[in-house]
Here is the input.
Amino acid sequence: MLRDITLGQYYPAKSKIHELDPRVKLVATLIYIISLFILNNPIGFALATIFLIIAVKMSKVPFSFMVKGLRTIIILMLFTAVLNMVFTPGEEIFRIWKISISFEGVRAAGLMMIRLCYLIIGTSIMTLTTTPNRLTDGLESLLKGLNKVKVPVHEIALMMSIALRFIPILVEETDKIMKAQMARGADFESGGLIKKTKSLLPVLVPLFISAFRRANDLALAMESRCYMGGEGRTRMKPLKYSAGDIRTYILLFIYLILMIISRIIWGRLF
Here is the structure.
């Protein structure tokens, strides 16, 4: 299960999406997330699906590798679906004791699960095709205007970069600790939820110790290199927009406009 976490991982490949400016990919991800939350009709669903399929194909990242990230949120998806089915009022389909399942609830649950799936895959494309350093540079460049209102943009971008780098490292560290515990007779599979939770306690303690040790080593390394923040710092590879980036921006805003139009038209017709 731990190996299924794809967040923070970079998949090296030669593709058009890999070559895009990280700022374009950040904006594209934001626009896609917005489009998913205004999606409420078959036309919008078709547009979002086509957009996602094209992005996956162009990224040249195996679809099976992206889908691995969905396994880690199956419980969250099922829990969200159950809540939508139970607490959404509407035309009753059937009743289990005092729990009523409505047609509108089933529809809301299905739509929410689709949104979550598309959301995970869409954001995975951004992280899998962009290195953490490029992602940090792109985020800092997009938010640099907030420096005028005393928002520490560089520090925020740095924290995000460190977090993305540490996720795969901590996942690998957790896997090693669990295998070491299993070699000593630990059982993480049998028993109920409470027993499984208790069995993870011996893993959490060394994991936290390892995480704090790595954080301390990183702080010492930054201090020894006289790191003083982002002011006045330059980049070895400055970000520059290309013609392909501009065309991508145009296509993104056309996609968003089509999603908004489909929502308006569907709302007036139905």
Remarks:
- Strands lie at 92-96, 99-102.
- The first strand starts at residue 92 and ends at 96.
